[in-house]
Amino acid sequence: MPKLDLASLPVRTGSIYPPPYDTLVAGRSSLRLGEAGGLTQFGVNLVTLAPGAMSSMRHWHLAEDEFVMVTEGRFIMVTDAGETEMGPGDCAAFPANTPDGHHFLNRTGRPATFLVIGSKAPREVATYSDEDLVVTVEAGRATFTHKDGRPYIAPKGEQK
Amino acid sequence: MPKLDLASLPVRTGSIYPPPYDTLVAGRSSLRLGEAGGLTQFGVNLVTLAPGAMSSMRHWHLAEDEFVMVTEGRFIMVTDAGETEMGPGDCAAFPANTPDGHHFLNRTGRPATFLVIGSKAPREVATYSDEDLVVTVEAGRATFTHKDGRPYIAPKGEQK
Question: Coil, strand, or helix at residue A127?
Fold first, then answer.
């Protein structure tokens, strides 16, 4: 059956970010819709942010196109240009290799949800605009470095 | 600006289908959101069907994954399993090379809209489940054949 039963899908929370960044995306949860439907060529996630939550650190992708449509509630999208309000039906596109980081904030008192689609590059590099941090994802493994390439090591007392 | 101004986008109508199939998708219009946002790795279209319209002939893709989310109104999705009702927020996934054709019908009295995402294979073959018709799309050119490979020639009096 191609129709997805969203209520049956596992709700994913947590973060791949190293400390102290890992707590930044508390309040974010998502459903992996594309994976649930057997898709392998691009990812489709339905992301819900609790009041006060953020989607990610502000970032841009080297290899992967990304597309977002808001489905419920209201967000602030932050890019180099500043803040943009986004409501249901509003869409944003982020072509690969465009060094203008983005993320979404829920500053309302109610949960808000967007659909996000991303291509699946064999090797991806995401750069975090407002931090000295880069992640390289290859063969399912994420490696965090500083922008000059040095390995990122979490501050003492914050390592897990 | 990554946010798209949907109201400014050209509304696309018409069909690549040869006669007599070309009139089947009258009442279908779409906005090419991904293209408008500069994306090249996958397609994102917002498709609206007028009352009585259909999205396409029932078909399946050989090379391309496809994903649909209903954003407004109600549809009937038709697959080999029969008819499935779809309303706002409902999603369906169609993995490549799964020979179960699908299409969407608007049997309501109001327009209805879905978002559709598809990957972009260099060569794609779509097979129409209920007709003796196949289309191969390569380098931006669509070629219609019968299922045994013979060229499709529109019936006399219906050629344009």
Answer: strand
Of B4, B69, B102, the CB nearest to A93: B4
Whole-angstrom Cα distance, residue B132 to residue B128? 7
Burial B44-83 (b: 16+ CB within 10 A, else e): bbbbbbeeebbbbbbbbbbbbbbbbbbbbbebbbbbeeee
CA distance A17 to chain B (A): 25
Q: Is the dihedral of CA B6, A65, A6, A72 positive or negative?
A: negative
Phi, psi of A26 (to 5 degrees): -60, 140
ipTM of the complex as predicted: 0.95
What distance in Å separates the CA atoms of residue B69 and residue A128, rounded to the nearest whole number? 30
pLDDT tens-place string over residues A129-146: 999 999 999 998 999 999
CA angle B100, B102, B107 (to 5 degrees): 150
Q: Where are the beta strands (DSSP E) in chain B?
A: 28-32, 42-49, 59-61, 66-72, 75-79, 82-86, 91-94, 103-105, 112-119, 123-128, 133-138, 141-145
> What residues of B are in contact with residue A40 (Cβ under 8 Å)?
65, 95
**Span A54-88, pLDDT tens digits:** 999 999 999 999 999 999 999 999 999 999 999 99
Q: Which amino acid belongs to residue A103?
A: H
DSSP secondary structure letters along A83-94: EEEE-TT-EEEE
pLDDT at res. B157: 67
